[in-house]
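Researcher: Sequence of RHL protein follows. Predict its structure.
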Amino acid sequence: MSSNYRNFRTSVPWLILFLEAVFIVLFYFLFSEDGASRSSISYPAFKDVNHMVIFGFGFFLTFLKRYGFSSTGFNLLIIVLGVQCSALIEGLLVFLPPRENEDPLKRITKAAVSMTAVVISTGAVLGKTNPVQLILMTVVEIIVFDMSRWINKTFLQIPDNINMMHVHLFGAYFGLAVSSRFSEPSPRTEKNASTPKSDLFSMLGTLFLWVFWPSFNSVQAVNDKSKAIYNTYFALAASAVTAFMLSVLTTKDGKFRMTHIHSGVLAGGVTVGYAAHSIEYPWIAMILGLLASVVAVLGSYCLQRCLNPALKIHDTSGIHFTFGLPGVLGAVAHVVLLVIKNWTNLPRLGYLVMVHVGAFCLTISVALLIGFITGLILNLKPFKTVPVSKYFEDQFYWEVSF
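Model: Prediction complete. Tokens:
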């Protein structure tokens, strides 16, 4: 291998050891006095979110034919490191106004939900980053995302259950900004393609995500958990039906395409997340699910052929049309529903629109800016261990037998 690329064995173990030592010390000072307390979040709800993040996204990203070990293994690595980091950031933010002591189960649940942003971002650079780069990206992104949520909550008074749903927007646009700093794979390479077996494993992850998404959207709800679950399920159902319909209509041979199913069936859950707890009638959630699937399936066609080549962005997993565009649709839909609901109270209406649009714009702006800077840092010589010719290869990191 060229001397321009370092052996990751000399850096990955020591970086992990250093971070874990720092986490243990900080946990000692911040959480040593935590006692047993009644939690506002049930253990089954936390378990659903944990399954979704680890199993769901772990298998969702296994569509590359030579990158299955890395997709699932690195996903677990960054999650267990990122959850610890996020819990510490939440603990440190307790010392800033407004002060809010949270029970341990709620703290770890919020950390797991926050890690969704990092996992989504990983999809944009899947196969092109080494473990050192992924770990550094995880630490930077989770710190910035938690700080972004704190700003939205403190200065814009955005409730936690809505604030946390920015996770899709932040993850998608942070990942795209990072990906813009990485070299595109050669058009002649076939390593970034899928096989029927890898697509099947990826579909398994999609099914995990689909099943547990109602828990994800309702875990932060205070009084309307059942309504959030109800609306999320019907939005997911409508988006799944629409994805199958559009897949047949948009392919040349009139057959289902797995890429459309992967993205379209989840889009409804992303879009309805902002307003799932407040939508009064299920038909509204179903319309949002239908529109989300249309945006995801048609967006995949337009972005891959028009926007991404123009911006020189290689989005490995298609996170822009799976999470980014449906997230934008959900944020806009939430503002529209607020306008309809508060139409008779014009002074309050103007304030609500201003703060929610502000939070939405702030989230995307911070994600793009910090993501771009992070991408530049990750491409510095000390962090590069993979040449472009070794993209999408498990053999560079794992013992693989054929």
